[in-house]
Design brief:
Rossmann fold; 2 domains; 6-stranded parallel beta sheet; 13 helices; 13 strands; about 20% strand; globular
């Protein structure tokens, strides 16, 4: 039985699904140290019996260091570099391979150039390889000095969300009233207020044939638009979210800042056509413009309206074809590919 130590910020359902797959399919035991989940997203997780969890807020730096040094691990996975005690624990690991996972996009700014130089000395030298989700993150890893870079660092629970697509009937796309789906925080970087305004305008101009269903909460919740064509559901647990996704004909994520966005993978697996901003990192893997949706410039309400108009005036046949292509793209990355990437790095 192999053993892995995971040092993480806040757990999410997709990460737990990947860990469960790793432990059950590859006979791995995992010790997971993580911070409590965010108040805006109080998810409830189901763990494999091979996973032990520890509350980071109740552990001292010495306890973390002792755990890394004496736990008999074959790999240490550190999610990000914001916790200095996590880095201290990694340094105490001995000859155990260490992985640094992160989703920071390389933007080529002066700030990023300086960060890359700093990371070469303070961070990257303590790790054996970087684990990143896409090309923008891989470029950042190279600037940090990593030679060994593994991609595919994020995967949703593909079988779970694929069931939505596989159970959908052909006549679903022929419904006269269609539903655009948003899931995420009500926060400025999600462009949520601008999305609501743009949707109302485009929907009225195209015959009011769509509704916008929004799932989530956050600091802009009180500013949500009161319009009969928009439904605000608030925070939802995964099972509730899946039920809502079954009713959607397309997905939208117009973020101005979105390093990756696993929700894009979830909606692709569910066979949803999509509208994404060019700030969404996951667009590289799960959106091929015109084939399964449309891309718009981040922070541009005008371009968002243009993309919404394209998806909301697409024919039933076009939406169905986009759905098939989203489903196809989603299967490039799965919990199994994620798990194999880690297993390949384990200490013999």
């Amino acid at each position: 039985m192999k053993r892995i130590l995971v040092l993480y910020r806040e757990l999410a359902g997709y990460f737990v699904a990947c860990l469960n797959t790793l432990c059950e399919q590859y006979e791995v035991e995992a010790d997971v140290v993580a911070y409590p989940v965010h108040a805006d997203a109080p998810f409830q997780f189901k763990f494999s019996s091979r996973i032990r969890t520890f509350d980071r807020t109740s552990m001292s730096e010495k306890e973390l260091v002792d755990l890394a040094a004496n736990g008999g691990y074959h790999l240490i996975f550190c999610g990000g570099w914001s916790d200095p005690s996590y880095l201290k624990a990694v340094q105490a690991r001995g000859d155990v391979p260490a992985l640094l996972g992160f989703d920071n996009q390389w933007k080529g700014s002066l700030k990023h150039h300086l960060a890359g130089l700093y990371a070469r000395w303070a961070i990257a030298r303590h790790f054996d390889f970087a684990f990143v989700p896409g090309p923008e993150q891989a470029q950042f890893a190279k600037k940090m000095g990593f030679d060994a870079i593994v991609d595919g660092a994020y995967s949703c629970d593909v079988p779970r969300f694929s069931a939505v697509h596989e159970q959908r009937s052909e006549d679903f796309w022929m419904k006269p009233q269609k539903n655009l789906f948003y899931v995420g925080r009500y926060a400025p970087e999600k462009f949520i207020n601008e999305l609501q305004d743009a949707f109302i305008e485009v929907n009225r101009a195209t015959g009011s044939k769509w509704t916008l269903t929004c799932a989530g909460t956050g600091p802009l919740w009180q500013e949500r638009r009161d319009d009969p064509s928009i439904l605000h559901l608030g925070f939802m647990q995964p099972d509730q979210l899946l039920d809502t996704m079954c009713l959607a004909h397309a997905f939208v994520l117009p973020s101005t800042f979105e390093p990756w966005g696993v929700v894009v993978h979830e909606c692709a697996a569910a066979g949803l056509p999509m509208v994404l901003s060019d700030a969404v990192g996951a667009r590289h893997a799960f959106l091929e413009p015109t084939k399964n949706g449309f891309l718009h410039r981040a922070s541009s309400t005008e371009d968002l309206r243009r993309a919404l108009h394209q998806i909301m005036t697409a024919s039933d046949q076009e939406l169905n074809a986009m759905s098939q292509h989203s489903y196809y793209l989603a299967h490039k990355i799965t919990p199994e590919t994620w798990s194999r990437s880690l297993v390949n790095q384990f200490k013999p």
